[in-house]
Design brief:
mainly alpha, 1% strand, transmembrane, transport, transmembrane helix
Length: 320
């Protein structure tokens, strides 16, 4: 079973090693000491940017699927109410079949919102394996040759914080630089994750979504996930924590952009966006938007008007 799992993870680890070593080579060519901890941290940050940027199409697909699921939510609830109290297998199968037909007509499915997470998990597991192998000074499956792995194993931040150490190891050795660094990383990492989820739940949820059982589960997960991060931060090496830190900050920025520009219709964020668009129209001298107006066309109109900046009188071209 383990051999089969390793075989599945091999291409993921190969790609991760190629990107990580590629960034490390670029940083070395830029003149930075390749054996320094900072060079490897920047390489890990570059790996995060590549992985998360490659997942943007999945994130967009998730947003579209969530919107469609929101549109059919009333119809799904009617079906669930229709079979409420019926616990026999035939009724349950009929209900599931009707619900799936609704999702199929809408062009989505209940699992679409989980797609980015399902894709990200094997990538994160592959990264943990790549970094753990390098921490032991052993060659990886591809570009991470043994000399690079040994260099990674001996790398430290400011010659004080070895990247292969964990918070657990730092406490065991009373290594205060490691303890302080791991503590700061943990606080930032957990805060970024908590704030990201809090913004989604408070600003990007409709009243109907807030009344659903899924919303109540999300509120519980809002506090469970940071607790899980605290436990994992205790055992993960600092190099892996840096990956998680940059990834969480990337997620936070991405979600703030999505909430600001692509909020769920009917949410507080959507109302705030409509107010911003209304103020823009007022500044540009445009009439108010009808409730049934095409938001995309209006936004394009505003952007086109903003591009057409009036010429200043007395410019060189006028004087000529």
């Amino acid at each position: 079973m383990l051999e089969f799992f390793d075989m599945l993870m091999w291409p993921i680890k190969w790609l991760l090693e190629a990107v990580l070593v590629g960034f490390h080579w670029v940083i070395e060519q830029a003149g930075m000491d390749p054996a320094s901890g900072l060079a490897w941290i920047l390489s890990i940050a570059g790996l995060v940017l590549v992985v998360r940027t490659a997942m943007i199409p999945l994130t967009i697909k998730q947003i579209k699927s969530s919107r469609k699921a929101l549109e059919v939510a009333p119809e799904v609830k009617k079906i669930q109410d229709k079979y409420k109290g019926k616990k026999d297998n035939l009724s349950r199968e009929a209900m599931n079949r009707e619900v799936m037909d609704v999702y199929k007509r809408a062009g989505t499915n209940p699992m679409a919102s989980c797609l980015p997470l399902l894709v990200q998990m094997p990538i994160f597991l592959g990264l943990v394996q790549v970094l753990n192998t390098a921490n032991q000074g052993r060659a990886g499956v591809g570009a991470m040759a043994e000399p690079l792995a040994l260099q990674f194993q001996q790398a430290s931040l400011f010659d004080l914080v070895p990247l292969h150490m964990s918070l657990e190891a730092g406490v065991a050795d009373w290594n205060w630089p490691v303890i302080l660094t791991a503590g700061i990383l943990t606080v930032i990492m957990v805060s970024a994750q908590f704030y990201t989820q809090l913004q989604i739940m408070t600003k990007n949820q409709t009243p109907q979504m807030k009344e659903s059982p899924m919303y109540k589960q999300q509120r519980i997960m809002l506090y469970i996930i940071p607790f899980f991060l605290l436990i994992t931060a205790w055992i993960f090496p600092l190099a892996t924590m840096f990956y998680w830190l940059v990834s969480n900050i990337y997620t936070l920025v991405q979600q703030l952009i999505i909430i600001n520009r692509m909020p769920n219709p009917g949410s507080d964020a959507a109302r705030a966006r409509e107010e911003r668009m209304a103020r823009k129209r007022q500044r540009l001298g445009l009439p108010p938007v009808d409730e049934d107006g095409d938001t995309a066309e209006e936004e394009n109109l505003i952007q086109n008007l903003q591009r057409k900046q009036p010429r200043r009188k007395g410019s060189r071209s006028d004087r000529k």
